[in-house]
Every structure is written in C-alpha cells, then in structure tokens.
Write a structure and sequence with these properties.
The chain is an alpha+beta fold and about 375 residues long. It has 14 helices and 10 strands. It is about 35% helix and about 15% strand. It has an 8-stranded antiparallel sheet with strand order 2-3-4-5-1-8-10-9. Strands 6-7 form a two-stranded antiparallel ribbon. Strand 6 (about 285) and strand 7 (about 290) form a beta hairpin. The chain is globular and about 60 Å long.
Length: about 375
C-alpha cells in the first residue's frame, strides 16, 4: 500500500475506495469463525442486544456481505459480542459504511438502546442550547463528587479504529495532535503520546480518572486495541479540566470535567473545545444517524453527561433506584466507568440516549434525572 504520509490529509478513504473492489467475498476462514461463533452465541444465555436481534434468518442473510470500502464483514462488526456473551450490546462499526451495509442488524439495536429511534427517524441538527439552564445541582457538595461531559468525534474520510492500518493511525494522530496544539486561552495545553508516558505515571492518571486503560476485553475483541499503544495519546489543558483522548475508542473523546455538580459550567467548556477543534478537523456526520462513532450506543449527539455520585439511601433501595433510572433514561456504571465495579458507594450515572435528541436535550435528560435522584435521596428515604 502507498505510504499514507504521502497522501494529502483526508484522502485516505478515497485512496482505499479506489484500491479495493466492492463486494469481495468474505474470507473462508472468517466465515467459519463467524458460523461457529454464532452457534455458540445462539446456544448461550447471553442477554446482549446482538443475540436478541440477530435471528438465524437475518444472520444467514448478512453473513457473506462485505462493505465496498474496506471489505468489512459481519464478523468485524460482531466479534466482540461473539467473544463476550456478557456484552450488553455486542456490536461495533469498523467503518462508517458498516452502518448501511449491515443496517438490518444495526437499526433494531439502535432503536432498542436509544429508546425508540426507528429506522425511519432522522437525528436532529446539532443544538447545544443554553448552558446557564443547568444550575449547580449540589452546591453544598453533599452527593456529587465530580461532573464530566464528553462527546465523541470521528474524522471524516477515515475508517473507525478497528479498521485503521498502522500508517493510517499515524496520519490520523498527526492531524489530531496538530489541531490540539492550536488551542489557546483556557484550552491551551500539551499532547502526550501514550507510548511516551511512563507506566507509573499512566497508572496514576488512570486512578485519577483522566486516562483510558488497555485492559478492556470488550474493546480488545472488537479490534480497537490494534498496534497498542502506537498513535494513542491524551491532551490536557493547563488546568486539567479539559481533556481529549486520541484513538482510544473513537478518534477523539472531547471531555470537560471538574469536581462538584456545576453541570452547566462543565458543559459550556466542552462546547468551546468542540467549536475550536471543528475549525481544524472535518468530523464524520450522517444525515440520519448524526455524528458517527465506533459503537452504536454513542451515535447522534454523542453526548455523555455524567456525575460521580453517592446515594447511600437509594443504594439500599435498589427497586426505587432502578425505577428512577428507567424513568429518566439514565445509565449506571461502576466508579471507573463501563465494565467496572462500584467503589466506596460511588456510582457513575449518565444519560443513556444519544440518538434522536439534540445535545442540549441529552444533557437536560441527565440533569433532570440526577435532580430526581437527589430529591429521592433527600425526601423519600429520610
């Protein structure tokens, strides 16, 4: 393959489209692995959305399909769900085109996860709304330890992370780090390549909830850890309340954070960072699905607004806790994020829906839900 450094930025996907033939037959070994993996999934007690929606007739219809741009197969999309029967979802998109080639499995999973976003629905235009609508939910710091608002972005004309070649990783990192290094004012900071950070420093940053980890088996089996740690990194502003992850799961995770419950302030900082970066980078956006991401749970607005919060009374009343979580479309994770345990009674709680509602509406859904949880903690179980 032509060395990607010789290509102009943004020409990678065009080159690959010219270099690959549409509709290549799936590799025979991959087809065998796909067939065997599906049989095991079908026989398992998995509760994943993949198993729920990928019935045998649909599997047989899709199993030999490949995309025109990178010849991605169904196996590339569902390997993580076949390998991990305890997956909640079990599917990723190796490239933007996968959402169309394998729409018959992606669409029902997207509708299920995002609470009714049908294949005939269209994601709204970007609207960040008014940040000052979100006052501090916990001014006395009784419950909320910290607040984080992030969004995911993928750079246009590049596939997603499991489909990137080693040279494409390098080109993409160069483009992103170049854009990050233009940031000024309160966003001014420095980019640290992961391969250059000492292990002890890495662990400290992980413990402080700044840095992503490499031990997530769900991401590993999806292909997201290829060439690790090459072309990955983290950008910090000087105050360390604005962070960008590069090539972790999506090309960029743009994150604003601080201690306490001032969601409006944290949200506003994230918006400012996105607006600076989109002056230098062209982000992938689909007319129907919104901003495109590796995992279908993060499509659309891509917004995940979350708090680290202690709710001891609700914790002792799980039925009421889950009732409120469902009512306000909230998602509950362990202290260190997805697939981790709750430590010291600290939950990571965020909005669940990202597709079919604006950025503002996604944050408001989380904001209203957290307020309801705090009200319940204060009133119902006194």
């Amino acid at each position: 393959m032509l060395r990607l450094q010789a290509l102009r930025p943004g020409t990678f996907l065009l080159f690959c489209r010219q270099a690959s033939k549409a509709g290549k037959t799936i590799d025979s070994d991959a087809l065998v692995r796909l067939e065997e993996g599906y049989k095991e999934l079908a026989a398992s007690d998995s509760k994943s959305l993949l198993k729920k929606h990928l019935k045998k007739d649909l599997f047989d219809k899709l199993k030999k399909k490949t995309t025109a741009s990178f010849n991605s197969s169904l196996l590339d999309c569902i390997q993580t769900g076949l390998s991990n029967h305890d997956s909640a979802v079990g599917i990723v998109a190796p490239e933007p085109e996968a959402y169309k080639t394998f729409a018959e499995i992606f669409d029902p999973i997207i509708e299920d996860f995002h609470k009714g976003f049908k294949k005939t629905d269209k994601h709204p235009e970007c609207c960040f709304g008014k940040c000052n609508d979100f006052a501090n939910l916990d001014p006395d710091n009784k419950y909320i330890l910290s607040t984080r608002v992030r969004c995911g972005r993928s750079v246009k004309n590049f596939p997603f992370i499991s489909c990137l070649s080693e040279s494409a990783f390098a080109e993409l990192e160069s483009m992103i780090s170049g854009a990050l290094n233009t940031m000024s004012g309160s966003y001014k900071g420095s980019y640290l390549p992961l391969s250059g950070i000492e292990k002890s420093v890495q662990q400290k940053l992980i413990d402080q909830h700044f840095l992503f980890r490499d031990c997530d088996r769900f991401l590993k089996t999806s292909g997201a850890k290829r060439f690790w740690p090459a072309a990955r990194g983290i950008y910090f502003n000087e105050d360390r309340n604005f962070v960008v992850w590069v090539n972790e799961e999506d090309h960029l995770r743009i994150i604003s954070m601080e201690k306490g419950g001032d969601i409006g302030k944290v949200y506003e900082r994230m918006i400012g960072g996105v607006e600076v970066l989109e002056k230098h980078l062209d982000f992938s956006r689909d007319e129907r699905l919104g901003y495109l991401t590796f995992c279908p749970t993060n499509l659309g607005s891509t917004i995940r607004a979350s708090v680290h919060i202690k709710l001891p009374n609700l914790s002792d009343n799980p039925k009421e806790f889950w009732k409120l979580m469902d009512k306000y479309n909230l998602q509950r994770r362990g202290t260190r994020g997805e697939h981790t345990k709750v430590e010291g009674g600290v939950y990571d709680i965020s909005n669940k829906r990202r597709v079919g509602l604006t950025e503002y509406e996604a944050v408001k859904e989380m904001y209203d839900g957290i307020r309801a949880l705090i009200d319940a903690e204060n009133k119902i179980f006194k």
